[in-house]
Amino acid sequence: MIKHLLLFFVFISFSVSANDFFRADTRTPSEIRQAGGLLPRGQQEAYERGTPININLYDHARGTVTGNTRYNDGYVSTTTTLRQAHLIGQNLLGSYNEYYIYVVAPAPNLFDVNGVLGRYSPYPSENEFAALGGIPLSQIIGWYRVSFGVIEGGMQRNRHYRRDLFQGLSVAPNHDGYHLAGFPDGFAAWRELPWSAFAPAACEHDYMVRILDACDSYTNRISKNDLFAFKRFMRIRSSLMILQSIEDDLQYNENKDEL
């Protein structure tokens, strides 16, 4: 009976939640482990090209004219359901014999693209949540293997997933993302609510008066601060978890000595 209960709780701990997110990707789990997570393309290529990472959400959502990811992209795309990720995978990765769908825990590094960009979201049907700076290995709950277009078996859990760190976290609220929208200089949205309340002076210029890269530079500077704040938050949370674990061990040993 105890064995059955343990198996039940293990299944519950690593089953897919309605709040989880999903990403179709050709990179294998071993490649993801080696890289330390799902890194954005911009982080992988920035060193080779010597160019800064673009963390404008609008640029990320649009991609390139061919529909591919920009070489300097600073986000990693996810969606809200396994089915949606599978559909996107078949559309973008259907030429591959094999790819994976990664299951991601919610956290404040995820931004609701439709919520932040509103009616200016270029592909609203994708229900995208974009991960600023990528997705660390510890945030990946597990993955599904897709072979010749078919999802094979159940989710394989990631033994490096830190449930203690990510349990109870939520995605970033929309109002935290408006200043990351990154619409071009003079774009109509900067004169509309809610974005007008977050528009820097560099982004409000008339269409005929443009300051090259002023709006992009502002958004990138702000988003880098947000990314730094998220990483600092996770380090603090991790430290608190370690301290709590030490305290629990000490309490356990004290109780054991009393017995």
TrEMBL record:
One of its GO terms (cellular component) is extracellular space. One of its GO terms (molecular function) is toxin activity. Pfam families: Enterotoxin_a (PF01375). Transmembrane segments: none annotated. Residues 1-18 form the signal peptide. Keywords: Disulfide bond, Enterotoxin, Signal, Toxin, Virulence. Belongs to the enterotoxin A family. This is Heat-labile enterotoxin IIc A chain. It comes from Escherichia coli.
